[in-house]
């Protein structure tokens, strides 16, 4: 006997296989576990890579004011970078609370430093902001403006330093002072071209991967350059204090800028070993190698490891609040 025909407006029996709804929660849980395992592995690997007896020796030798000053500058730099997404808040007009935006930026920035841009700078920021209700297009514009703030400030500062205060290179280097000066003028020209584009371009919007990006106002573009450059200068100040001012400040900042772009090119998480290699290569003819390494070990502790522990704890709290039925959809904890 044939089954009765389906009534109009009603669907026949549905298959409830594992596609779509069943596998996705397991995938998210697995991805979360892998993420935390990666954080734990990174902490262990960085700890194993550090010569702890040198850390203790350097801490014993460092004057307390220098350590406290470096720690204060590191905190100031992290706080300043946490304000970068506030420019995106003004730029897009979204209404998330200021402390919430700064917390998201802090977590993303620190995990970006330690795990790489794809995890911290992109994926995690999308995850946190989307849970707060921001649309993908808004998140893309916020993130793009923040990245531009960082790297346009970098280009401006590197351009000025390489052009007018070229660091003394070790003997025998193929790239001489003239080459660095030319690179400096090019970098400075790019940053100033961005400012002029924002000020005088008649076309105010561009489409990138189906997302419309609108040029910021000249005032905001100038603020981007100032904030980005100031953050890199503060980071250089941390190392300058830890080197106990034995090398002039502009040279320290210049070498930091070279080491930062080298870390980006090599895609090494946290630039581990890359920054140290650049400082040793460029400055070991001016200061003993063990003093350089000791200062950089402390720098990593102040600017990478300690903030990573704080950011991981904050992310755990945020995830717990997001999973709790009582707080689902509530704003992130402020402060």
Account of the 3D structure:
- The protein is mostly helical.
- It has one domain.
- It has twelve helices and two strands; from the N terminus they run ααααααααββαααα.
- The protein has helices at residues 23-49, 52-61, 64-81, 84-92, 98-115, 117-131, 136-164, 177-200, 218-242, 249-266, 274-283, 289-323; strands spanning 205-208, 211-214.
- A two-stranded antiparallel sheet has the order 1-2.
- It starts with 22 loop residues before the first helix and ends in a 12-residue tail after the last helix.
- Residues 6-20 have low confidence and may be disordered.
How does the helix and strand content classify structurally?
mainly alpha
Provide the spatial order of strands within the biggest beta sheet.
Answer: 1-2
Distance between the termini: 69 Å
Structural domain tally:
1
Main β-sheet description: 2 strands, antiparallel
Instruction: Detail the poorly predicted runs.
Output: 6-20
What's the helix count? 12
How many strands? 2
Task: State the order of secondary-structure elements, H for helix, E for strand.
Answer: HHHHHHHHEEHHHH
Question: Topology of this structure?
Answer:
Layout: H1 23-49, H2 52-61, H3 64-81, H4 84-92, H5 98-115, H6 117-131, H7 136-164, H8 177-200, E1 205-208, E2 211-214, H9 218-242, H10 249-266, H11 274-283, H12 289-323
Antiparallel strand pairs: 1-2
Helix pairs in contact: 2-12, 3-9, 4-5, 4-7, 5-6, 5-12, 6-7, 7-8, 7-9, 7-10, 8-9, 9-10, 10-11, 11-12
């Amino acid at each position: 006997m044939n089954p009765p025909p389906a009534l109009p407006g009603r669907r026949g029996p549905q298959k409830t296989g594992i596609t779509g709804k069943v596998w996705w929660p397991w995938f998210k849980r697995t991805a979360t576990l892998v993420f935390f395992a990666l954080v734990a592995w990174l902490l262990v690997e960085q700890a194993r890579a550090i010569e702890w007896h040198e850390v203790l020796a350097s801490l014993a030798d460092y004057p307390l004011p220098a350590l406290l000053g470096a720690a204060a500058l590191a905190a100031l730099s992290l706080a300043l970078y946490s304000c970068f997404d506030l420019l995106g808040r003004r730029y897009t007009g979204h209404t998330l609370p200021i402390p919430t935006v700064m917390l998201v930026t802090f977590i993303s920035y620190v995990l970006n430093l330690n795990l790489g841009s794809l995890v911290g700078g992109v994926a995690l920021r999308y995850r946190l902001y989307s849970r707060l209700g921001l649309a993908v297009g808004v998140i893309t514009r916020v993130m793009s403006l923040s990245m531009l703030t960082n790297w346009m400030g970098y280009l401006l500062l590197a351009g000025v330093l390489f052009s007018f205060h070229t660091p003394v290179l070790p003997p025998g280097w193929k790239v001489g002072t003239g080459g660095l000066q030319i690179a400096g003028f090019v970098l400075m020209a790019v940053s100033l071209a961005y400012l002029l584009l924002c000020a005088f371009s008649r076309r105010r919007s561009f489409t990138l991967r189906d997302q419309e990006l609108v040029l910021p106002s000249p005032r905001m573009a100038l603020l981007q350059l100032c904030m980005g450059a100031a953050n890199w200068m503060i980071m250089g100040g941390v190392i300058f204090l830890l080197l106990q001012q034995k090398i002039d400040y502009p040279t320290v900042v210049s070498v930091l800028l070279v080491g930062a772009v080298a870390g980006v090119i090599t895609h090494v998480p946290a630039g581990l070993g890359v920054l140290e290699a650049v400082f040793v290569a460029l400055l070991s003819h001016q200061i003993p190698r063990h003093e350089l390494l000791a200062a950089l070990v402390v720098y990593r502790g102040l600017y990478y490891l300690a903030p990573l522990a704080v950011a991981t704890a904050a992310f755990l709290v945020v995830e717990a609040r997001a999973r709790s039925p009582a707080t689902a959809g509530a704003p992130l904890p402020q402060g």
